[in-house]
Amino acid sequence: MTYKWNVSSAAHTLIDAENRRQELGKITDEWPELDLDVAYQVQDETLARRLMRGEHVTGVKLGLTSRAKQERMGISSPLTAWLTDAMTLAEGVPLQLDSLIHPRVEPEIVFVLGEAIEGPGITAAVALQAVRSVHAGLEVIDSRYRDFDFRLPDVVADNASSGRIVTGGLSVAPAGLDLALEPCVLHVNGEVVHTATGAAVQGHPAEALALAANTLAARGVALQPGWIVYTGGLTDAVHLQAGDHVVAEFGHLGSVVMTAS
Ligand code: OOG
Ligand code: MG
């Protein structure tokens, strides 16, 4: 029997895999016609299903904005996806590994917006003016695809492997920061596993913010005041195991900590 793929069945399959913590093969293997436009329709349909079960949009995330991430995943174009309140993990609350499929963690620079940003035509400088605060962040990604093996439309449909976000409590005003030079050291169980500076993300994290504003404008979406924006992993992501203690330590943004259990 061949499965009848369409926007609705793809969204259902992805949300069901997430709920049941089961990996899938690539959708594009069975549905090669899944192009980027349709993939974003699937992503929006997965969001609709999250909202229907009571979640709220808290912001957006960018994916594959750094060379480290692009090279690891074998995909060179950035993408955007949705963040909801159900993805938020408070700092200090352990991540339950059995609530996810095969989580990995990556450090990110995070913006909280004070004003709306409505593309197109937004530059990094203009985008930065809408930022209220900058934070240290850890994102736990959890692809619904086996071994994180996907093509661009697959990962777009899968809400860019969204899992959990942990945002550092220190809130830093953007004025006076040079985010291209902002250093980040990722420690796992006391060992340094990756280092980067903010320039890893599109040359400057505000470029990623502008990219989000401009590409979302094409889908009729403006970034809203109060939204949180995860600008993309600065480094390759790290597999998580029970007991892992992860710290992303930044130069001016403080540190953010997460423990897996
Ligand atoms: C795709 C999600 C990428 C990032 O920050 O680059 C992402 C993946 O690597 O599974 O969240
Ligand atoms: Mg990420």
Short description:
The protein is an alpha+beta fold and 261 residues long. Helices cover 26% and strands 26% of the residues. The protein has one domain (7-259): Fumarylacetoacetase-like, C-terminal domain (Fumarylacetoacetate hydrolase, domain 2, Alpha-Beta Complex), CATH 3.90.850.
How would you sum up this structure, described in words?
This protein has one domain (7-259): Fumarylacetoacetase-like, C-terminal domain (Fumarylacetoacetate hydrolase, domain 2), CATH 3.90.850. The chain is built from seven helices and eleven strands. The protein has helices spanning 7-20, 27-30, 36-52, 67-73, 124-129, 152-157, 205-217; strands at 57-63, 79-84, 104-113, 131-141, 164-167, 183-188, 191-197, 228-230, 238-239, 245-250, 255-259. Helix 1 (7-20) packs across helix 3. The structure holds 2-oxoadipic acid and magnesium ion (MG). The site of 2-oxoadipic acid has 15 residues, from strand 1, helix 4 and strand 4.
